[in-house]
């Protein structure tokens, strides 16, 4: 029941936004085609603008992931986190979550496939991955698109919020499962 | 950011050397650079589409209506942005798209919102308080339904994948609210933006 409702929502969310905007544009006599193409013209420019920022961040993160430091940090954190009933398998997710969305999803798929649906680690990993965005990627894309290179406190706040997210995921999971 | 950039690269090289993975680290430079361009180019089409749609939304007055609706909230959160700025409507649209898990719509609209915020920014190289706030809120990633995660759970035969929604929503709400509070807090204590910063570049 809830699942079909969910499917309907995720299926219709996008089409209804587009329908709403186009219909309202037509009613308000906005020249739809002209306005659309005028706005769309900037698509290429924005994409090209973010390239230098993306290269800086994605290269640094790729190097970081390839160096094996995530695994070694995981080993280091293991005794502390197991004290709080956190399975060791989920540690890489906590480290990689803010850096790379595809990596976090990859680790989650591994855990889910290897440990199965009943494992506590699967549930905790699902909540951790589902409740976050890739902070570094968003930062590079959003600030890169408008040419901001001084981030001031934006990154610190983003990472602190990620950290609070991890702690609350552990707490919530402990209480519920 | 300068320190983080330095830290990420230096640590990678040192750790790579210790772990005997230095060649992997070097290869990661090439693959990372390639990936960045792929990501940027894959954005072109969908970016053009949403920028076009958003232009219609703006010209027909929809963005203004949304801005008015959420004014009581945004007045407090984005107090440095004029209430009738299209930025407010764009920000609302970004979070609507995000909440429904429409990532490929949320990114272009979020960029559009950032461009509107940049118009109100005094120093075009450094992030205004409103931009930091918007970024912090975006990185907290408020989402109603974690669709990708649920898809993975269904694929491994998880009996009741929807039971994950409520706890995820709770966690994401906590992160989202703390992002707003933290941004407000840092706004008070961080060195204010000045125009003279431009000279140092």
Descriptive report:
The complex is a heterodimer of chains A (177) and B (201). With 177 residues, chain A is mostly helical. Chain A contains 9 helices and no strands. The radius of gyration of chain A is 21 Å and the shape is globular. Chain B is mainly α and 201 residues long. Chain B is built from 9 helices and no strands. Chain B is globular, with a radius of gyration of 20 Å. At the A-B interface, helix 1, helix 2, helix 3, helix 6 and helix 7 of A face helix 1, helix 2, helix 6, helix 7 and helix 8 of B.
Please describe the structure with a list of short key phrases separated by commas or semicolons.
heterodimer; A: about 180 residues; mainly alpha; about 0% strand; B: about 200 residues; about 75% helix; disordered C terminus
Percentage of residues assigned to helices of chain A:
over 70%
- Mean pLDDT of chain A, to the nearest integer, reads 89
Q: How does the major sheet of chain A shape up? A: none
**Unreliable stretches of chain B:** 196-201
Helix and strand composition category of chain A: mainly alpha
Distance between the termini of chain A: 23 Å
Number of strands of chain B: 0
**Relative strand content of chain B:** under 5%
Global shape of chain A = globular
What is the structural class of chain B?
mainly alpha
- Quaternary structure classification: heterodimer
What would a concise description of this structure say?
The complex is a heterodimer of chains A (177) and B (201). By secondary structure, chain A is mainly α.
Explain the layout of strands and helices:
The complex is a heterodimer of chains A (177) and B (201).
Chain A: H1 2-27, H2 32-40, H3 42-66, H4 69-83, H5 91-96, H6 101-115, H7 120-130, H8 135-145, H9 154-176
Chain B: H1 2-18, H2 22-59, H3 62-69, H4 71-77, H5 86-99, H6 103-119, H7 129-140, H8 147-155, H9 165-189
Helix pairs in contact in B: 1-2, 2-6, 3-5, 5-6, 6-7, 7-9
